Amino acid sequence: MDFDTINLFDFVVKEGNGVKGLIDSGLSKVPDVYIQPVHQRINKTNNVDAQIAPLPLIDFSGLDGPEHDQVEKTLVKAAETVGFFHVVNHGLTVHVIEELKDAARQFFNQPPEKKLVYQKGVSPSPLVTYGTSFGHSFEWRDYLSMIYNSDDDAYKYWPDQCNCREVVLKYMKTSTKMARRILEVLMKNLGVELDDSMDETYMGFMLVTMNIYPTSPDPELTVGIGKHSDLGTLTILVQDDIGGLSIKVQEDGEFGKKGEWIEVPPIPGALLINIGDALQVISNGKYQSVEHQVRTPNTQSRVSVPCFFNPGLMVKIGPLRKVVEKDGKAKYKECLFQDYKNHAFGQGHQGKKSLDFVKITSP
Ligand SMILES: O=C(O)CCC(=O)C(=O)O
Ligand SMILES: [Fe+2]
């Protein structure tokens, strides 16, 4: 098939085929609009070091055992330095992880008309969106995102096909417990006790996204997700064994030199967790959100399922008073999380640039 821009839009967006549909149709050349500018491409020349990055590995069960001090220390150090870590013994069974990846694959494998019903504007609810990034940064990815309000709304609006709703709910429940526990440890380290009323502040807005990254006729020319940091407090990620996520090293140390990109190979059964911008702001910069990106896979499509924990949209995010008192000054101004999110979305994927919106630069 040969697409010009007009029927490319019809095929990919209007008819709901997504980039997956392009590949399934036997596309032999990357359409011009999807060719990334040289500086956005993810390859050796752009310094992505495919070498294995031994990210910190946290044994979650250790938090409740005799080793808990040590586990807490490792967790805090990971959040302060590399901002990304693997977690094992997290409570999500191998079976659920497999079900989740299967559900994602099955969802995207459906004919376009089944997916199209969840497209923005026609979806039965704004909580559920099927889409692709046509017209933004032309990323080589399709997604289905599901916002969590309540079990009732999830049962009413989330897709029941392909086991999506059931399995994503299971994933979210376990992830929520895990996120709360991690935040407890990170906040305790800042001298703040987490109580139930803080759920809204740290995880008042939650969503799960299923991503599919199809192969492309020339994976070096396309990008799965461009350079960005996550906006919220924590992200928990399930991914298959294909790999392709890379992260930017924050500071010189055991993971590489500041500014270097390292690829994070998946560990079967482990979850990958990272810090988002809101937690960097709340902690006055103690915990680091991390720039990351996803390349297009070479031989087989990849799926990933991030669960995003964000402050409630009407929560004012800003550095904790206790931390500012200790540090002597606030590094960020307060703002509604909703405003932060809208600002960041308006900018597209531009590394950690969205944080400039709240950074205090004057002395
Ligand atoms: O697919 C991945 O590995 C990461 C996805 C991601 O960074 C995101 O959805 O924000
Ligand atoms: Fe991300």
Automatic annotation (TrEMBL):
<comment type="similarity">
    <text>Belongs to the iron/ascorbate-dependent oxidoreductase family.</text>
</comment>
<protein>
    <recommendedName>
        <fullName>Fe2OG dioxygenase domain-containing protein</fullName>
    </recommendedName>
</protein>
<dbReference type="GO" id="GO:0046872">
    <property type="term" value="F:metal ion binding"/>
</dbReference>
<dbReference type="GO" id="GO:0009805">
    <property type="term" value="P:coumarin biosynthetic process"/>
</dbReference>
<keyword id="KW-0408">Iron</keyword>
<keyword id="KW-0479">Metal-binding</keyword>
<dbReference type="InterPro" id="IPR027443">
    <property type="entry name" value="IPNS-like_sf"/>
</dbReference>
<dbReference type="InterPro" id="IPR005123">
    <property type="entry name" value="Oxoglu/Fe-dep_dioxygenase_dom"/>
</dbReference>
<dbReference type="Pfam" id="PF14226">
    <property type="entry name" value="DIOX_N"/>
</dbReference>
<dbReference type="InterPro" id="IPR050295">
    <property type="entry name" value="Plant_2OG-oxidoreductases"/>
</dbReference>
<dbReference type="InterPro" id="IPR026992">
    <property type="entry name" value="DIOX_N"/>
</dbReference>
<dbReference type="Pfam" id="PF03171">
    <property type="entry name" value="2OG-FeII_Oxy"/>
</dbReference>
<dbReference type="InterPro" id="IPR044861">
    <property type="entry name" value="IPNS-like_FE2OG_OXY"/>
</dbReference>
<dbReference type="GO" id="GO:0051213">
    <property type="term" value="F:dioxygenase activity"/>
</dbReference>
<keyword id="KW-0560">Oxidoreductase</keyword>
<feature type="domain" description="Fe2OG dioxygenase">
    <location>
        <begin position="204"/>
        <end position="311"/>
    </location>
</feature>
<keyword id="KW-0223">Dioxygenase</keyword>
